[in-house]
Amino acid sequence: MSSTRVLVLNSGSSSVKYQLLDMRDSSRLAVGLVERIGEQTSRLKHSCLATGDSREKTGPIADHEAALKAVAEQLGRDGLGLDSPELAAIGHRVVHGGLFFTEPTVIDDEVLTEIERLIPVAPLHNPANLTGIRTAQALRPDLPQVAVFDTAFHTTMPEPAARYAIDPKIADRHRIRRYGFHGTSHAYVSRETARLLGKDPSEVNVIVLHLGNGASASAVEKGRCVDTSMGLTPLEGLVMGTRSGDLDPAVIFHLARVGGMDMDEIDNLLNKRSGLFGLCGDNDMREIRRRVDEGDEEAELAFDIYIHRLKKYIGAYYAVLGTVDAVAFTAGVGENAAPVRAAAVQGLDGLGLALDPERNAVRGEQARLISPESARVAVAVVPTDEELEIATQTFALVGKNT
User: Fold this and answer.
1) 381 strand-pairing partners
2) Residue 58 — left, alpha, or beta (φ > 0 → left; ψ -120 to 50 → alpha)?
3) What pTM value is reported for the model?
4) What is the DSSP secondary-structure string of 299-335?
5) Three-class SS of residue 351?
6) For this structure, is 150 an active site residue?
7) Helix, strand, coil shares, percent, the chain, to 5
8) Which is the catalytic residue, given 22, 78, 150, 282?
Protein backbone atom coordinates (compact mmCIF):
# COMPACT_ATOMS: atom_id res chain seq x y z
CA MET A 1 0.00 0.00 0.00
CA SER A 2 1.46 3.39 -0.99
CA SER A 3 1.80 6.10 1.64
CA THR A 4 0.10 9.26 0.43
CA ARG A 5 -1.17 10.92 3.60
CA VAL A 6 0.45 13.84 5.43
CA LEU A 7 -0.48 15.05 8.90
CA VAL A 8 0.13 18.80 9.29
CA LEU A 9 0.74 20.09 12.83
CA ASN A 10 0.79 23.73 13.84
CA SER A 11 1.80 23.81 17.49
CA GLY A 12 1.29 27.06 19.38
CA SER A 13 2.11 27.85 22.98
CA SER A 14 -1.27 26.57 24.19
CA SER A 15 -2.84 25.04 21.09
CA VAL A 16 -2.36 22.49 18.33
CA LYS A 17 -4.06 22.88 14.95
CA TYR A 18 -3.97 19.83 12.71
CA GLN A 19 -5.08 18.56 9.33
CA LEU A 20 -4.71 15.17 7.69
CA LEU A 21 -4.51 15.34 3.90
CA ASP A 22 -4.36 12.75 1.12
CA MET A 23 -1.82 14.05 -1.36
CA ARG A 24 -3.18 12.01 -4.25
CA ASP A 25 -5.78 14.74 -4.71
CA SER A 26 -4.89 17.17 -1.89
CA SER A 27 -8.15 16.33 -0.15
CA ARG A 28 -8.66 16.84 3.57
CA LEU A 29 -9.53 13.73 5.53
CA ALA A 30 -9.70 15.31 8.99
CA VAL A 31 -9.21 18.70 10.61
CA GLY A 32 -9.12 19.80 14.21
CA LEU A 33 -7.93 22.03 16.99
CA VAL A 34 -6.81 21.50 20.57
CA GLU A 35 -6.89 24.75 22.52
CA ARG A 36 -6.21 26.00 26.04
CA ILE A 37 -3.62 23.26 26.63
CA GLY A 38 -2.54 23.19 30.27
CA GLU A 39 -5.86 24.53 31.56
CA GLN A 40 -8.83 22.84 33.17
CA THR A 41 -11.01 24.12 30.32
CA SER A 42 -9.04 22.53 27.46
CA ARG A 43 -11.09 21.75 24.35
CA LEU A 44 -10.57 19.45 21.38
CA LYS A 45 -12.63 19.96 18.22
CA HIS A 46 -12.32 17.27 15.55
CA SER A 47 -14.02 16.75 12.19
CA CYS A 48 -13.72 13.75 9.89
CA LEU A 49 -14.50 15.18 6.47
CA ALA A 50 -14.85 11.78 4.84
CA THR A 51 -17.83 10.87 7.03
CA GLY A 52 -19.02 14.33 8.04
CA ASP A 53 -18.69 13.34 11.69
CA SER A 54 -17.71 16.09 14.13
CA ARG A 55 -16.83 15.71 17.79
CA GLU A 56 -15.94 18.02 20.63
CA LYS A 57 -14.29 17.10 23.89
CA THR A 58 -13.71 19.37 26.88
CA GLY A 59 -11.69 18.86 30.04
CA PRO A 60 -8.10 19.25 31.17
CA ILE A 61 -5.32 18.43 28.70
CA ALA A 62 -2.09 18.78 30.62
CA ASP A 63 0.50 19.36 27.90
CA HIS A 64 1.33 18.97 24.22
CA GLU A 65 2.09 15.28 24.63
CA ALA A 66 -1.40 14.70 26.01
CA ALA A 67 -2.84 16.91 23.26
CA LEU A 68 -1.21 14.93 20.46
CA LYS A 69 -2.22 11.65 22.04
CA ALA A 70 -5.79 12.95 22.10
CA VAL A 71 -5.48 13.91 18.43
CA ALA A 72 -4.17 10.44 17.61
CA GLU A 73 -7.09 8.90 19.47
CA GLN A 74 -9.62 10.94 17.50
CA LEU A 75 -7.97 10.08 14.18
CA GLY A 76 -7.92 6.41 15.21
CA ARG A 77 -11.68 6.46 15.82
CA ASP A 78 -12.08 7.42 12.16
CA GLY A 79 -9.69 4.73 10.93
CA LEU A 80 -7.07 7.39 10.22
CA GLY A 81 -4.70 6.70 13.12
CA LEU A 82 -1.03 7.62 13.34
CA ASP A 83 -0.19 3.92 13.01
CA SER A 84 -1.68 3.80 9.50
CA PRO A 85 0.75 2.56 6.82
CA GLU A 86 -0.76 5.21 4.53
CA LEU A 87 0.76 8.01 6.61
CA ALA A 88 3.87 9.19 4.74
CA ALA A 89 5.06 11.98 7.02
CA ILE A 90 4.20 14.63 9.56
CA GLY A 91 4.74 18.22 8.45
CA HIS A 92 5.36 20.86 11.11
CA ARG A 93 4.95 24.59 10.81
CA VAL A 94 8.04 26.25 12.28
CA VAL A 95 7.88 30.03 12.48
CA HIS A 96 11.56 31.00 12.42
CA GLY A 97 14.25 29.27 10.39
CA GLY A 98 16.71 32.14 10.18
CA LEU A 99 19.04 31.94 7.19
CA PHE A 100 19.98 28.35 7.94
CA PHE A 101 16.76 26.89 6.51
CA THR A 102 15.75 27.99 3.03
CA GLU A 103 13.49 25.05 2.18
CA PRO A 104 11.50 22.29 3.89
CA THR A 105 13.83 20.06 5.88
CA VAL A 106 13.65 16.53 7.29
CA ILE A 107 14.09 16.93 11.03
CA ASP A 108 17.09 15.42 12.79
CA ASP A 109 19.09 16.38 15.89
CA GLU A 110 21.03 19.07 14.03
CA VAL A 111 17.80 20.67 12.80
CA LEU A 112 16.32 20.62 16.30
CA THR A 113 19.45 22.26 17.69
CA GLU A 114 19.31 25.07 15.13
CA ILE A 115 15.60 25.71 15.73
CA GLU A 116 16.42 25.93 19.43
CA ARG A 117 19.25 28.39 18.75
CA LEU A 118 16.73 30.67 17.02
CA ILE A 119 14.49 30.94 20.10
CA PRO A 120 15.86 34.41 21.02
CA VAL A 121 14.43 35.85 17.78
CA ALA A 122 11.17 33.88 18.04
CA PRO A 123 10.59 33.44 21.78
CA LEU A 124 6.83 32.91 21.51
CA HIS A 125 6.77 30.54 18.56
CA ASN A 126 9.85 28.35 18.20
CA PRO A 127 9.60 26.75 21.68
CA ALA A 128 6.01 25.67 20.97
CA ASN A 129 7.01 24.39 17.53
CA LEU A 130 9.82 22.36 19.11
CA THR A 131 7.45 20.86 21.68
CA GLY A 132 5.10 19.70 18.92
CA ILE A 133 7.96 18.17 16.94
CA ARG A 134 9.45 16.27 19.87
CA THR A 135 6.07 14.98 20.95
CA ALA A 136 5.26 13.77 17.44
CA GLN A 137 8.68 12.12 17.19
CA ALA A 138 8.00 10.24 20.41
CA LEU A 139 4.66 9.00 19.06
CA ARG A 140 6.05 7.96 15.65
CA PRO A 141 9.86 7.77 15.84
CA ASP A 142 9.97 5.78 12.59
CA LEU A 143 8.10 8.37 10.53
CA PRO A 144 9.75 11.25 8.62
CA GLN A 145 9.07 14.57 10.32
CA VAL A 146 9.48 17.65 8.15
CA ALA A 147 9.86 21.28 9.22
CA VAL A 148 8.36 23.89 6.90
CA PHE A 149 9.54 27.36 7.87
CA ASP A 150 7.54 30.60 7.75
CA THR A 151 10.73 32.47 6.93
CA ALA A 152 11.98 30.23 4.11
CA PHE A 153 10.08 31.89 1.24
CA HIS A 154 11.64 35.23 2.16
CA THR A 155 15.26 34.04 2.12
CA THR A 156 15.40 35.05 -1.57
CA MET A 157 15.28 38.73 -0.57
CA PRO A 158 18.38 40.54 -1.86
CA GLU A 159 20.71 42.00 0.76
CA PRO A 160 19.58 45.62 0.24
CA ALA A 161 16.06 44.55 1.23
CA ALA A 162 17.08 42.19 4.02
CA ARG A 163 19.69 44.34 5.77
CA TYR A 164 19.06 47.05 8.34
CA ALA A 165 21.30 50.12 8.18
CA ILE A 166 23.29 49.29 11.31
CA ASP A 167 26.87 48.09 11.86
CA PRO A 168 26.98 44.76 9.98
CA LYS A 169 29.35 43.21 12.51
CA ILE A 170 26.88 43.84 15.31
CA ALA A 171 23.98 42.75 13.09
CA ASP A 172 25.66 39.49 12.14
CA ARG A 173 26.73 38.73 15.70
CA HIS A 174 23.16 38.98 16.91
CA ARG A 175 21.43 37.70 13.73
CA ILE A 176 19.72 41.02 13.16
CA ARG A 177 18.20 41.26 9.69
CA ARG A 178 14.79 41.17 8.06
CA TYR A 179 13.49 37.59 7.90
CA GLY A 180 9.77 38.01 7.12
CA PHE A 181 6.95 35.70 8.16
CA HIS A 182 3.71 34.17 6.79
CA GLY A 183 5.99 32.67 4.15
CA THR A 184 3.89 29.60 3.42
CA SER A 185 0.89 31.87 2.80
CA HIS A 186 2.81 34.26 0.55
CA ALA A 187 4.25 31.35 -1.43
CA TYR A 188 0.86 29.69 -1.90
CA VAL A 189 -1.06 32.88 -2.72
CA SER A 190 1.50 34.23 -5.19
CA ARG A 191 1.49 30.90 -7.01
CA GLU A 192 -2.32 30.67 -7.02
CA THR A 193 -2.57 34.25 -8.29
CA ALA A 194 -0.39 33.33 -11.26
CA ARG A 195 -2.62 30.32 -11.90
CA LEU A 196 -5.68 32.58 -11.76
CA LEU A 197 -4.10 34.72 -14.47
CA GLY A 198 -3.36 31.62 -16.54
CA LYS A 199 0.38 32.09 -16.24
CA ASP A 200 3.39 30.42 -14.67
CA PRO A 201 4.65 32.03 -11.44
CA SER A 202 7.92 32.81 -13.22
CA GLU A 203 5.99 35.08 -15.59
CA VAL A 204 4.29 37.42 -13.12
CA ASN A 205 5.01 40.01 -10.44
CA VAL A 206 2.56 39.97 -7.53
CA ILE A 207 2.02 42.08 -4.43
CA VAL A 208 0.53 39.79 -1.77
CA LEU A 209 -1.40 41.32 1.14
CA HIS A 210 -1.85 38.80 3.95
CA LEU A 211 -4.33 40.60 6.19
CA GLY A 212 -5.39 38.82 9.36
CA ASN A 213 -4.89 39.63 13.01
CA GLY A 214 -1.24 39.45 12.01
CA ALA A 215 -0.65 41.19 8.69
CA SER A 216 2.18 41.31 6.17
CA ALA A 217 2.83 42.33 2.58
CA SER A 218 5.29 40.91 0.11
CA ALA A 219 6.68 41.79 -3.29
CA VAL A 220 7.03 38.62 -5.35
CA GLU A 221 9.01 38.91 -8.57
CA LYS A 222 8.66 35.99 -10.96
CA GLY A 223 7.92 33.57 -8.11
CA ARG A 224 10.62 34.82 -5.74
CA CYS A 225 10.16 37.12 -2.76
CA VAL A 226 12.21 40.32 -3.13
CA ASP A 227 10.78 42.25 -0.17
CA THR A 228 8.38 41.75 2.71
CA SER A 229 7.01 43.97 5.47
CA MET A 230 7.78 41.95 8.61
CA GLY A 231 11.38 42.01 9.78
CA LEU A 232 13.49 40.50 12.54
CA THR A 233 10.18 39.75 14.25
CA PRO A 234 6.52 39.91 13.17
CA LEU A 235 6.20 43.38 14.76
CA GLU A 236 7.45 45.38 11.77
CA GLY A 237 5.31 46.54 8.87
CA LEU A 238 1.56 46.91 8.53
CA VAL A 239 -0.86 47.96 11.26
CA MET A 240 -2.17 44.70 12.75
CA GLY A 241 -4.78 43.54 15.21
CA THR A 242 -2.69 44.18 18.33
CA ARG A 243 0.77 45.02 16.89
CA SER A 244 1.87 48.54 16.03
CA GLY A 245 3.77 47.72 12.85
CA ASP A 246 6.30 50.33 11.69
CA LEU A 247 7.42 52.67 14.45
CA ASP A 248 10.19 55.19 15.01
CA PRO A 249 12.67 53.20 17.17
CA ALA A 250 13.13 56.31 19.33
CA VAL A 251 9.58 55.80 20.62
CA ILE A 252 10.99 52.90 22.64
CA PHE A 253 13.73 55.09 24.15
CA HIS A 254 11.16 57.78 24.91
CA LEU A 255 8.81 55.34 26.64
CA ALA A 256 11.71 54.05 28.75
CA ARG A 257 13.30 57.38 29.63
CA VAL A 258 10.27 59.65 29.87
CA GLY A 259 7.46 57.16 30.41
CA GLY A 260 9.40 55.09 32.94
CA MET A 261 8.38 51.82 31.27
CA ASP A 262 10.67 48.76 31.36
CA MET A 263 11.41 46.60 28.32
CA ASP A 264 8.79 43.99 29.14
CA GLU A 265 6.11 46.67 29.45
CA ILE A 266 7.10 48.23 26.13
CA ASP A 267 7.20 44.80 24.46
CA ASN A 268 3.71 44.07 25.76
CA LEU A 269 2.45 47.48 24.63
CA LEU A 270 3.72 47.20 21.07
CA ASN A 271 2.84 43.54 20.50
CA LYS A 272 -0.38 43.08 22.47
CA ARG A 273 -1.93 46.49 23.13
CA SER A 274 -1.27 48.43 19.94
CA GLY A 275 -2.48 48.22 16.34
CA LEU A 276 -6.23 48.40 15.85
CA PHE A 277 -6.84 47.30 19.43
CA GLY A 278 -4.65 50.06 20.81
CA LEU A 279 -6.26 52.67 18.59
CA CYS A 280 -9.92 51.89 19.22
CA GLY A 281 -10.24 48.98 21.65
CA ASP A 282 -11.23 46.43 18.98
CA ASN A 283 -9.07 44.20 16.80
CA ASP A 284 -11.95 42.52 14.94
CA MET A 285 -12.35 44.29 11.59
CA ARG A 286 -16.05 43.36 11.46
CA GLU A 287 -16.69 45.19 14.71
CA ILE A 288 -14.58 48.15 13.63
CA ARG A 289 -16.54 48.48 10.38
CA ARG A 290 -19.81 48.27 12.29
CA ARG A 291 -18.66 51.12 14.50
CA VAL A 292 -17.47 53.13 11.49
CA ASP A 293 -20.87 52.73 9.86
CA GLU A 294 -22.45 54.07 13.06
CA GLY A 295 -20.25 57.16 12.97
CA ASP A 296 -17.74 56.17 15.67
CA GLU A 297 -14.83 58.59 15.16
CA GLU A 298 -12.33 56.51 17.15
CA ALA A 299 -13.00 53.43 15.00
CA GLU A 300 -12.91 55.55 11.84
CA LEU A 301 -9.47 56.93 12.70
CA ALA A 302 -8.18 53.41 13.44
CA PHE A 303 -9.51 52.19 10.08
CA ASP A 304 -7.97 55.15 8.24
CA ILE A 305 -4.56 54.58 9.85
CA TYR A 306 -4.76 50.90 8.89
CA ILE A 307 -5.58 51.76 5.26
CA HIS A 308 -2.98 54.53 5.03
CA ARG A 309 -0.20 52.11 6.01
CA LEU A 310 -1.54 49.48 3.62
CA LYS A 311 -1.55 51.92 0.70
CA LYS A 312 2.02 52.98 1.50
CA TYR A 313 3.18 49.39 1.17
CA ILE A 314 1.28 48.82 -2.07
CA GLY A 315 2.98 51.88 -3.53
CA ALA A 316 6.40 50.94 -2.14
CA TYR A 317 6.26 47.42 -3.52
CA TYR A 318 5.01 48.70 -6.86
CA ALA A 319 8.23 50.74 -6.97
CA VAL A 320 10.35 47.76 -5.88
CA LEU A 321 8.90 45.52 -8.60
CA GLY A 322 8.77 48.12 -11.36
CA THR A 323 5.88 46.36 -13.05
CA VAL A 324 3.00 44.64 -11.28
CA ASP A 325 0.66 42.05 -12.79
CA ALA A 326 -1.59 41.56 -9.76
CA VAL A 327 -2.35 42.57 -6.19
CA ALA A 328 -3.74 39.67 -4.16
CA PHE A 329 -5.68 39.98 -0.90
CA THR A 330 -5.69 36.98 1.45
CA ALA A 331 -6.23 35.79 5.06
CA GLY A 332 -9.20 36.58 7.28
CA VAL A 333 -9.51 40.31 6.64
CA GLY A 334 -8.16 40.23 3.10
CA GLU A 335 -10.57 37.50 2.03
CA ASN A 336 -13.69 38.75 3.79
CA ALA A 337 -13.58 42.51 4.32
CA ALA A 338 -14.73 44.13 1.07
CA PRO A 339 -14.51 47.66 2.58
CA VAL A 340 -10.81 47.12 3.35
CA ARG A 341 -10.09 46.05 -0.22
CA ALA A 342 -12.08 48.96 -1.64
CA ALA A 343 -10.36 51.53 0.59
CA ALA A 344 -6.89 50.11 -0.06
CA VAL A 345 -7.27 50.42 -3.85
CA GLN A 346 -9.23 53.69 -3.91
CA GLY A 347 -7.28 56.49 -5.58
CA LEU A 348 -4.65 54.22 -7.08
CA ASP A 349 -6.01 54.48 -10.63
CA GLY A 350 -2.73 56.01 -11.74
CA LEU A 351 -1.04 52.71 -10.85
CA GLY A 352 -3.56 50.79 -12.93
CA LEU A 353 -5.48 49.56 -9.89
CA ALA A 354 -9.26 49.56 -9.72
CA LEU A 355 -12.09 47.43 -8.33
CA ASP A 356 -15.39 46.31 -9.78
CA PRO A 357 -17.80 47.04 -6.88
CA GLU A 358 -20.09 44.11 -7.70
CA ARG A 359 -17.21 41.64 -7.91
CA ASN A 360 -15.70 43.00 -4.72
CA ALA A 361 -18.98 42.53 -2.83
CA VAL A 362 -19.20 38.82 -3.68
CA ARG A 363 -18.34 36.41 -0.86
CA GLY A 364 -16.84 33.07 -1.82
CA GLU A 365 -14.24 30.44 -1.03
CA GLN A 366 -12.72 30.36 -4.51
CA ALA A 367 -9.88 32.49 -5.85
CA ARG A 368 -11.36 35.24 -7.99
CA LEU A 369 -10.62 38.54 -9.73
CA ILE A 370 -12.38 41.61 -8.35
CA SER A 371 -10.95 44.14 -10.81
CA PRO A 372 -12.69 45.24 -14.02
CA GLU A 373 -11.85 43.35 -17.19
CA SER A 374 -10.12 46.47 -18.52
CA ALA A 375 -7.85 46.94 -15.49
CA ARG A 376 -4.14 47.22 -16.24
CA VAL A 377 -3.30 45.43 -12.98
CA ALA A 378 -5.43 42.53 -11.77
CA VAL A 379 -6.78 42.68 -8.22
CA ALA A 380 -7.59 39.27 -6.75
CA VAL A 381 -8.97 37.62 -3.66
CA VAL A 382 -7.08 34.37 -3.10
CA PRO A 383 -7.99 32.30 -0.02
CA THR A 384 -4.78 31.17 1.61
CA ASP A 385 -4.16 27.52 2.46
CA GLU A 386 -1.07 27.26 4.61
CA GLU A 387 -1.84 23.69 5.67
CA LEU A 388 -2.03 22.54 2.05
CA GLU A 389 1.22 24.36 1.31
CA ILE A 390 2.95 22.65 4.26
CA ALA A 391 1.56 19.26 3.20
CA THR A 392 2.59 19.81 -0.42
CA GLN A 393 6.14 20.78 0.52
CA THR A 394 6.38 17.91 2.99
CA PHE A 395 5.16 15.30 0.52
CA ALA A 396 7.38 16.64 -2.24
CA LEU A 397 10.34 16.06 0.05
CA VAL A 398 9.50 12.60 1.38
CA GLY A 399 6.77 11.21 -0.89
CA LYS A 400 9.14 9.88 -3.51
CA ASN A 401 10.73 7.66 -0.87
CA THR A 402 7.48 6.19 0.50
Assistant:
1) 329, 368
2) beta
3) 0.91
4) HHHHHHHHHHHHHHHHHHHHHHHSS-SEEEEEHHHHH
5) helix
6) yes
7) 40, 20, 40
8) 150
